[in-house]
Specification:
309 residues, 2 strands, 73% helix
């Protein structure tokens, strides 16, 4: 009996399952490039870092297995916990302000006014620039003597601080640069989300007597939850991994006030050549990001709907 004759005698559901299994290799073929990238550049490095955190390795010598000694060292390492705290403060300075400004810009640029496309492009330009170059420009802006910011403040009789040399102002200054750079980029996502909200919902709310503020809180914001979820998750992950702006503007100073955890990892690995302990710090950073992301997923998962029908 031929295979075609055998297939003909099978029920329709069984024949469909057999055909789907036969085409399965084609699906895996299309997924293979992306799967290779995830395994080679995400999963494998994570495993290597986790294994390396169990060793003492100074690059030029053979790795020495030390078990959990690096983690015990981390528990008593006040400088590393200080770097984690600086990172958390940086995230709290950046993300709320950045998100609010991006949403406000999106609502302003969602209007049908002349030249709106030009303004949308204008606000995205900072995101397109290299962070190192932007940091050098902002170093000049924050210069206490000849910088543009203190010169502008002097015009109204205000003596500006030494922004990047004062421990009280250095971290807010770095956070301000990040907010300026990424606000326009996040605005694009909110703009796309706003344009996906059906106009009929606003018309119905206006007919029921809802004020503009009520329409925002009861219509716009709830339907922007999928966009808000994406923006906050990606921004938090990026903010926890900040490095280049800090490296170019303050080099972790003054007095460690801007030494975020990623910068601490860099210092430990490439200046102290303690790669095992740097891997331990990397594991700590990953654990923090993972827990924060899970918390966001749980928070937004109960409040997000993707069906606007």
């Amino acid at each position: 009996m031929t295979s075609q004759a055998a297939d003909a005698r099978l029920p329709a559901a069984a024949r469909n399952r057999r055909r789907r299994r036969g085409r399965g290799w084609q699906a895996y073929l299309f997924v293979a490039p992306s799967l290779f990238g995830v395994v080679a550049f995400l999963l494998l490095p994570m495993v290597i870092v986790l294994v390396l955190s169990l060793f003492d390795w100074e690059l030029l010598s053979a790795p020495e297995f030390v078990g959990l000694d690096n983690y015990l060292r981390l528990a008593a390492d006040g400088e590393s916990w200080h770097s984690l705290w600086v990172t958390v403060v940086y995230v709290l300075l950046c993300i709320p302000l950045q998100t609010v400004l991006a949403l406000a810009l999106a609502m302003l640029l969602n209007q049908r006014v002349k030249g709106v496309r030009f303004y949308r492009s204008l606000f995205v330009i900072p995101w397109m620039a290299t962070p190192i170059v932007l940091a050098l420009i902002w170093n000049w802006i924050f210069d206490p003597r000849d910088g543009a910011l203190n010169s502008a403040l002097a015009l109204v009789g205000i003596a500006g601080p030494d922004w990047l040399s004062d421990p009280a102002w250095a971290l807010p200054a770095v956070a301000l640069v990040s907010v300026w750079q990424y606000t326009g980029y996040n605005m694009l996502f909110f703009l796309a989300g706003l344009q996906g909200v059906p106009k009929e919902l606003y018309d119905a709310a206006a007919t029921d007597g809802a004020t503009p503020a009520q329409r925002f809180w009861r219509v716009t914001l709830p339907l922007l939850n999928p966009t808000m979820f994406f923006v906050t998750v990606t921004n938090l992950i990026g903010a926890f991994q900040v490095f280049d702006t800090v490296y170019a503007m303050t080099d972790g100073g003054p007095s460690g006030s801007t030494e975020v955890l990623n910068f601490r990892i860099f210092q430990t690995a490439f200046k102290e050549f303690d790669f095992g302990y740097a891997a331990t710090l990397s594991t700590l950073l990953f654990a923090v990001i993972f827990l924060v992301t899970v918390a966001q997923v749980r928070f937004f998962g109960k409040r997000t709907t993707y069906d606007l029908s």
